[in-house]
Amino acid sequence: ITVSSFYLSKYEVTNRDWRKFIQDQKKQLSEVEFSKLLPDTSVWSKQFQSTYNVPFIKNYFQSPEFDNFPVVGISWIQAKAYCEWKTKKINLSLKSQNIEIQALRL
């Protein structure tokens, strides 16, 4: 098996990172398409049924106290959309700084 070159982020995608992504996408997508990018916060009750997780279901993604925690409840399709968005952002940033590299792909 051969895999083409790619870059990997040093850190996990945080709730803050994901909110930046969906806010940027909100400008370009219909309300229905935008809603498909929101994380499934019900994973807290599905994965951990024996514990009381209502506060996490209600607050984990939106609350600033969890800004630097990893985003959860993301599908492969959502993760792929994030990577495409982040790739475009990084490539535009490098281009604006006159840094020449081969196109970066996350």
Count of alpha and pi helical runs: 5
Give average pLDDT, whole number.
83
Euclidean distance between termini CA atoms: 19 Å
The helix content, as a percent range, equals 40-55%
Instruction: Give the ordered list of helices and strands.
Output: HHHHH
Report the structural category: mainly alpha
User: Uncertain segments of ≥5 residues (pLDDT<50)?
Assistant: none
Shape: globular
Rg for CA atoms: 16 Å
Tell me about the largest β-sheet. Answer: none
The percentage of residues in β strands lies in: under 5%
Would you count the extended β strands for me?
0
Summarize the structure in words.
The chain is mainly alpha-helical. The chain has five helices and no strands. The radius of gyration is 16 Å and the shape is globular. The mean pLDDT is 83.
Give short descriptive properties of this protein:
5 helices, mainly alpha, 106 residues
Task: Provide a quick synopsis of the model.
This protein is mostly helical and 106 residues long.
Write the layout of secondary structure elements.
Elements: H1 15-26, H2 31-35, H3 43-47, H4 54-59, H5 76-96
